[in-house]
């Protein structure tokens, strides 16, 4: 910001609450959740959802498990009114779901809202009026506190009067002092208590007091102080559900909600992925999955987050950012080598621990470096976790070759392969896809045929006691075909002796392993042979072939070629 401009801003006054208790609380259970996607979220869209889109979104919210859904502002526009009517008239509201409608505390709008919910089994009538000094001064032309409080009271009285007009509908009452976040606490309390006085809630018929962080003016700890202060001072606290409704102007909607819950709130309003006015409403997915990550059930099912995101992006025409918590494309992806190594070790270790203990993977406590939750629990696959660019390391490349292509490289081969492949990513200046990594591996480290290649071979295994293998092979060396013969204590050893017979003996085999390639369409085997040159260089080569013996010979030949 331009330094000269800073003088026009002021610090936000803290709340005097020296005996605050919220910092010592922990979140142990989920609040009541209310989705406001179809109202606050929809109001914030450049192109609001059509009725059909809202219907699809409503169904999605029900599938996720929301039991309270603010369906709109039916007195504000025909589309909103008609949407509400369709939900009711077409019996689209599940029995355990309560719809909520928002309305300003104005006579004709309240009456119209009652018309909108007629016939619903249950509905929340949510009235609000703005209470902050800024709104009183600017929007309401220097209105007095009394004037603003009376607007709330008159609205509450009318709602009370109209409630018996819908005998078939169980009506739950909700009041919001809009702009609570910058309203003097004593005045917010005065308005809420005045409405409570009119509505006379009881522990059996609770009303909702929603305290909106309409605009986030300050830090989340101050919001928590405001909530704790209100919870302490509201009349009939045991007959109220105190509700949070944070926005995200300072990027702290999630933090403010979490601290607000610690401060005593019972209920949370928000949207999927934080859609909403300006920087958005609270992202309920974020808060709920944060709770899940601490072992707290929430009643909301985000196990197929990709599908939710797809529907959300289609019907709202918004997009979820790549770094968005939990839902972003890249949030479970590690590019950096050290992260990839640690994640691979973490996943491998869990598998081993599960095998050795007999405890199913899902019951083992989650402990994988850099991953706060198991991506599979929200429908993300491990394949996307490790991606390769020039920042990546050997572990990540080995992980891709293993998980995606069934090639389980020996550990000491990882640095040799890793370096060449991430050098390639560096050269190209971009990320390498899993198939490109496989192709590069094949091209650089598998079945190399120049200057030496093996065309055919025959092995004779003598009796087990003698443990002797004889190898006759046809090779091509620098374009010239040769027939070689040797014997040894295994096929590789016999082939090495056969090569020695034509004076190719400046190396020794120092390691070998092989395995069937997992998931391959044709039943190929992979073999890895490590050789040491007389000059001290040590290199691995890989051979791939339907025959495990030929794979071994090809691996040796590849390693030999790499030494040239
Ligand atoms: O942000 C807000 O204050 C609101 C109210 C109408 C609840 O959306
Ligand atoms: Zn809002």
Q: Briefly, what is this?
A:
By secondary structure, the chain is of the alpha/beta class. It has helices at residues 37-43, 51-64, 78-89, 107-117, 133-139, 145-162, 185-199, 220-233, 253-262, 284-292, 305-316, 337-357, 394-405, 414-428, 434-445, 491-500, 548-563, and strands at 32-35, 68-72, 98-104, 122-130, 170-178, 207-213, 240-246, 267-270, 452-461, 469-477, 480-488, 507-516, 525-533, 538-545. 38% of the residues lie in helices and 19% in strands.
Q: Can you put this structure into words, describing what you see?
A:
The chain is an alpha/beta fold. It folds into three domains: 285 residues, Aldolase class I (TIM Barrel); 105 residues, Orthogonal Bundle (Helix Hairpins), CATH 1.10.287.1400; 112 residues, Double Stranded RNA Binding Domain. It contains 17 helices and 14 strands. The site of 3-methyl-2-oxobutanoic acid (KIV) has 10 residues, from strand 5 and strand 6.
Number of E-state strands: 14
Poorly predicted runs: none
Structural class based on helices, strands and sheet pairing: alpha/beta
> How large a portion of the residues is in β-strands, by DSSP E?
15-25%
Q: What ligands can be seen in this structure?
A: 3-methyl-2-oxobutanoic acid, zinc ion
So what's the overall shape? elongated
| DSSP helical segment count | 17
CATH fold description of the largest domain: TIM Barrel
